[in-house]
Specification:
The complex is a heterodimer of chains A (155) and B (773). Chain A has six helices and five strands. In chain A, a hairpin with a 2-residue loop joins strand 3 and strand 4. Chain A is globular and about 50 Å long. With 773 residues, chain B is an alpha+beta fold. In chain B, strand 16, helix 9 and strand 17 form a beta-alpha-beta unit. Chain B is globular, with a radius of gyration of 27 Å. The chains are: A alpha+beta (155), B alpha+beta (773). The interface between A and B is large, with 55 and 57 residues.
């Protein structure tokens, strides 16, 4: 009824979607566009499992309306990958360091730390911790995630 | 248990003991793994539960007419629509507990805030939400009981008509009263823990549909064997219900009981359409099962040299409104109440008590973890009283192989707890200095004994099926579910070790009640032990069957063959054939290259009246150590260093073992210092994820890990389980460190700044749950 047509640009491709004004970016990316790497975890902007980059800045997909994202570049973790599902070097570090257990928080962790390293180059371990406070992990205890981000930043 | 006539796995291992990034890691890092919510079918509806807003009430009327007529609504169901409205858990198999039925949907009475009352399916989530709002339920509120003391009072309201004490367990050995009277020293303590949430990042979710007349559910669950309970609820034969477990976004025991399953099943069955249900995080916080708050009283007698002579323990756990797995949780608490110490005379009582709080059930550590706070405090108090060091008093009492537990069981594997203690303390290095005035530093430690494997009277078993394909690749089928800890990957590593198939050539199919041999659920730190042994034996038996064929082709003896790198080699590593050639040769001789094997755990029985008998197959031992700094102005506790060491018997995949230990320790740090649902009068106070404080990346330091490999576990190749053990030590370790810093023992969790300040001021700790007398 109140649906509006809009174009969302995600990972370099334009998608025409019909959305309600109340639809979140998370709803549309996950349920309408089938992007399983953007996940519902809390709906409060606390856990970070729905993290995406909006014009390069990490945002919570659950706190961003889909209509707000129109006209902006949305990047999910899979948008960092190369052709043929080639892993991004940061993902390689996650793999090598065992930085994923259940994997549910992984896309958000990767995107937030990708943004951090892009901004500051070689962050200290404490800076990485600070940047990741909005991405919760219940499995790994963070140590291996921090190791992975440090290794990536050192490259 | 072992099959002595099979050829052993030769050492050194080639695959076991390495840390390959297996299929699940790769998919997770690519973001391409499909969790339970990542599933969409044509015409799929959206399910929503209507839950009770009050903790104790009679339902006088339910009017669903407005909800049913809302456009887009496909079904609104209440108790009247449930063919068999009963979930009967009987978690101890009827050994000791009251028989209490949990309705799928509340009929005439609600017993906790959040109890399911009705379910809705609609074309969109928004319509389902609106329809749920339109379900009109009249509640006549009734008095409830919200703490175990009130629940045990004779004139208190009954949560269930049969009574409020769900189960009482006793373990008795020797004469405790006499031994305490004769002891040189007796230390006493009372310890309390809180309601805690699993907080897996993936909320409860699933999709259900009908396929060839079979009710099929693809859900986030630890236990596909719930298919039987679902069949009973719907009134279907078990052959007509199939449960598929997606790789989970964490479980920690919270997906051991059914979550969305019966509701999805009912909605699919009534609408004949696919249905998806995802619980909101806030719904999960309020209404999913929790960890039991424990009230523990310890009295420990010892000789002047620190040798323990007797221990008396009373444990009361808040079961909440329904039994779930409480009887077994409280059993584990009793069985582990004395920790990794020799206690000649013991009297242990544990009970689970109904309240009108949200039900409690399985959570990593399962009763055996809460008691660590108690038994480790007693050790530190004993050391303090006798002027011994904390390590001395522990070493004087550590269990050893061959010792008897209070249940009368003899330990038959190595107990390397002393080694874990020395290694954990060594990891910490030099003691820290206070960072400034008003700061106190302290060092603490906590040892533990956590079972792996199910309670022994369940006669546990697990099956696995292996098939060498014509091209030399390998299939594994196992009903194991994967929590994210690499349950499936470890099985692939074990099969690769025995059969020589490269890991990349192995595909493992798991978590399907229709297509996989049953493995019995992923809980109780049982899957490496159970399915690991099933896969090991299936692989050994398959190798044994194929070996004569290979030996014949290679002109070698079967016992000389080496299965490695996708090939079979004869003696001396000379001539070889590929696994594909072996499969073809077996086929020509009509020898099957597929094999099903069932592995059975040791069995036994427990006598609840005598308080003696068999409890668990074996234990994992470990020690954590920590340095903390306490701010005497604010009561804030800063963890400066944290170290953990466990004997895992054999590390199948050391990186995953380390990850389990780090993750368990971090979850334990939340339990120790920040996490509390704060249930008041039946209402969860921390009803937002913003208010329920699980550790973030900044809260605590890295967890330093050391792994002991004694080689004496009962799992495959001598492994012990490591899923649950590392959460057990943490609260005791932090309490020990705070005790060392401030000279007073914290006895109540979480150890918030307010409580620590209370201890510093010599004030009584803040109000906690009432104490039964």
């Amino acid at each position: 009824v109140n649906r509006r047509q809009t174009i969302l640009s995600v990972n370099g491709a334009d998608h025409e979607v019909w959305v309600l004004p109340s639809d979140t970016l998370l709803d549309v990316l996950h349920d309408e566009l089938g992007m399983a790497d953007v996940r519902y975890g809390c709906g409060e902007g606390v856990c970070g499992t729905c993290t995406v980059l909006l014009d390069g800045e990490p945002v919570n997909g659950c706190l961003t309306l889909a209509l707000q994202a129109a006209g902006h570049q949305v990047t999910t973790m899979r948008g960092l990958m190369g052709p043929g599902e080639a892993l991004h070097p940061l993902q390689e570090c996650f793999l090598r360091r065992g930085a994923a257990q259940c994997g549910f928080c992984t896309p958000g962790m990767v995107l937030t730390s990708f943004d951090l390293v892009r901004r500051v180059g070689r962050p200290t371990r404490e800076e990485i911790r600070y940047a990741l406070v909005g991405n919760l992990c219940r499995c790994t205890g963070y140590t291996k995630i921090l190791d992975a981000v440090e290794e990536y930043a050192d490259q | 248990m072992t099959t002595p006539d099979l050829l052993p796995v030769t050492t050194p291992y080639r695959v076991v003991g390495t840390s390959p990034a297996h299929h699940d890691f790769v998919e997770k890092v690519k973001g391409s793994l499909h969790y339970a919510a990542d599933w969409r079918l044509p015409g799929m509806l959206h399910g929503r539960l209507v839950r009770s807003p009050v903790p104790s009430a009679r339902i006088t009327a339910i009017d669903v007419s407005a909800a049913r007529t809302l456009p887009g609504v496909a079904a609104v169901l209440t108790a009247a629509d449930v063919p068999s409205n009963a979930i009967v858990e009987m978690a101890s198999g009827g050994l000791a507990e009251l028989e209490v039925t949990m309705p799928v949907l509340a009929q005439d009475r609600v017993r906790y805030a959040g109890e399911p009352v009705a379910i809705v399916a609609a074309a969109t989530r928004q319509i389902a939400d609106a329809a749920a709002e339109l379900v009109a339920v009249d509640y006549e509120e009734r008095p409830g009981v919200f703490d175990v003391t009130s629940a045990l009072a004779t004139d208190s309201p009954r949560v269930h008509d049969v009574g409020n004490t769900l189960v009482t367990w006793q373990i008795r050995s020797g004469d405790v009263a006499a031994a305490l009277a004769a002891a040189d020293v007796v230390v006493e303590g009372e310890y309390r823990s809180q309601h805690v949430e699993h907080a897996y990042l993936e909320p409860e979710a699933g999709v259900g549909w009908l396929e060839n007349g079979v009710l099929t559910l693809r859900v986030s669950t630890q236990v596909i064997e719930h298919a039987a309970a679902i069949a009973r609820i719907i009134g279907l034969p078990q052959s007509k219900v199939r449960v598929i477990a997606a790789y989970m976004g964490g479980g920690f025991g919270g997906k051991e009981d059914m979550t969305v399953e019966p509701y999805l099943a009912l909605l699919v069955w009534h609408t004949r359409r696919p249905v998806r249900m995802i619980w909101d995080r806030q719904e999960s916080l309020v209404a999913s099962t929790k960890r039991h708050p424990f009230l523990m009283r310890y009295k420990t007698g010892a000789r002047a040299d620190g040798t323990i002579t007797a221990q008396q323990v009373e444990i009361t756990g808040d079961a909440g409104a329904y039994p779930n797995l409480s009887p077994r949780v409280l059993f584990a608490a009793a069985a582990c109440a004395c920790g990794p110490y020799r206690v000649p005379d013991a009297s242990i009582t544990s009970r689970a008590v109904f309240t009108n709080n949200v039900p409690t059930s399985a959570f990593r550590g399962f009763g055996a973890m809460q008691v660590t706070l108690g038994y480790e405090a007693q050790m530190d108090l004993l050391a303090e009283r006798l002027g011994l060091s904390r390590t001395q008093v522990r070493e004087r009492n550590f269990l050893a192989k061959g010792d008897l537990l209070p249940t009368g069981e003899r330990l038959d594997t190595c107990v390397a707890v002393a080694e874990t203690m020395h290694r954990a303390l060594a990891l910490l290095g030099e003691p820290p200095r206070p960072s400034g005035p008003g700061k106190l530093v302290g060092r603490g430690l906590g040892c533990n004994r956590q079972p792996y494997g199910r309670t022994i009277w369940f006669r546990d078993r697990a099956s696995a099926w292996l098939s060498l394909q014509a091209d030399g690749t390998l299939l594994i089928r196992s009903g194991v579910t994967d929590l994210g800890a690499g349950q499936a990957a470890s099985l692939a590593q074990i099969a690769a070790e025995v059969l020589g198939a490269p890991l990349d050539d192995i595909s493992i199919y798991i978590g399907d009640s229709a297509l996989n041999p049953p493995a019995g659920g992923t809980f109780a730190t049982r899957q490496l032990y159970m399915s690991g042994n099933a896969v090991l034996h299936a692989a050994l038996e398959l190798r044994e069957r194929m070996a004569p064929v290979a030996a014949d082709l290679l002109g070698a003896l079967p016992g000389e063959l080496e299965f490695a790198d996708g090939r079979v080699r004869g003696a001396g590593g000379g001539v070889s054939i590929t696994l594909a050639e072996l499969a073809a040769a077996c086929d020509r001789r009509a020898i099957s290259t597929a094999h099903l094997s069932t592995w059975r755990a040791e069995s036994g029985s427990f006598d609840p009246r005598a308080g003696q008998g068999d409890t668990f197959p074996d234990y994992t031992y470990g020690t954590h150590a920590a340095d903390v700094e306490v701010d005497t102005e604010t009561g804030q506790v800063t963890v400066l260093r944290y170290a953990a060491c466990h004997d895992v018997g054999r590390a199948i995949n050391p990186m995953r073992v380390e990850g389990q230990i780090q993750g368990g320790a971090m979850q334990g740090l939340g339990y120790a210092l920040t996490e509390d649902l704060g249930i008041e009068d039946g209402y969860v106070q921390a009803a937002l994820f913003a208010n329920y404080l699980i550790p973030n990346a900044q809260d605590f330091p890295d967890v330093l890990v050391d792994i002991v490999e004694s080689g004496e576990g009962k799992g495959p190749l001598g492994a012990r389980g490591i899923g649950e053990p590392p959460i057990g030590n943490v609260a005791a370790t932090i309490a020990s460190a705070i005790h060392d810093a401030i000279g007073v023992r914290p006895a109540e969790l979480p150890m918030t700044p307010e409580r620590v300040l209370g201890l510093l001021d010599g004030r009584a700790p803040g109000p906690g749950p009432e104490v039964p007398t």
